[in-house]
Amino acid sequence: MELRKRRGLMAALIVVNIGVPTIFLLVRLIAHAVAPKSYGPAGGYSIFTALVAGIMYVFGFIVAATLGCTAGSVDLTEGMFRHLVITGRSRLALYFARIPAGLAIIVPLVAVGFTIVCAVCVFAAPTKLVYDGVNVPAGLSLTGLESWAAQHPKEVDCGFNYNGPEGIACGINQNGKIVTPPGAPSFNQIPATKLKAQAVATAKQDYADYSHTFLYPSVPLMIKTGLWIELEAIIGFVVGLGLASLMGQRTVSVVLMIVLELILTPLFSHSAIPHLINAQRGLVGLATAHLEPGGLPQVFGGGGGGNGVSHIVPENTTVAVCVIVAWLVGWTALGARRMARRDA
Description:
64% of the residues lie in helices and 2% in strands. By secondary structure, it is mainly α. The strands form two sheets. It has a two-stranded antiparallel sheet with strand order 1-2. The protein is elongated, with a radius of gyration of 25 Å. The two termini are 22 Å apart.
């Protein structure tokens, strides 16, 4: 009740977790309804991944940390800690009561915002799958994509990305027409068998990327992403709570949490420092990035991105889970110990 009565804090939580994604999607819905040829559909896989990895992950952590810092310091800054101690209630009980109270606020807000994003991205998804500028049937198996490529060799040879020794020299111009560059042989001069063989090889090479491209996010991806976003918010709240309780003030704690999320984590996640590699692996942001679902773009340039290639400091799943548990338990222990020994 004490946290809910802080209207400015609650407004910030609602705006970031629910308001920002909702307004963004609403603007896209209106723009597409007014000018469908100029503005694409409001939903779909690309919109889903952009909102989750670009907004909800980062700012959800920050507002959750702000809530935790407030819960860990509000009684001290307002002079209420003495009155709580006089009641005779255990100080540890006073501290641990803040954890379910804060989670009861932040977890539903994140869930509501994420549900809105999922609903719009599914029901307002595009009706055609465009892969590398080519209209391709969605949900094909590897054999199905190879068969389709053999039937559409020109589109595949010119539109799909191919890294091989014998690519067909052609391209697709701005009007969507297949063209061949000056000096290159036209399609009529290339044997049909070579065109089909090249198309099948290209389809086989690009299938891993194609299989991660959806008209709308799949149900397993949405479930995994929702749990991952909630985990990030829980970490932000618990760490912020422990840090604020340890320091006894909110402002500096919030600033430190923002620095951790926006500066330190991206900085130390991108390149491995030989003598500090174990310290880098101890960052909770790096550990959370390694648990990112595989169908999302890489957060901060790292962490299981959609192309399956990670550019962050290597760390196995077991170590990542241990780091997250250590941060949750460690900061909870530090915050509770500080409250238990603080002068009333």
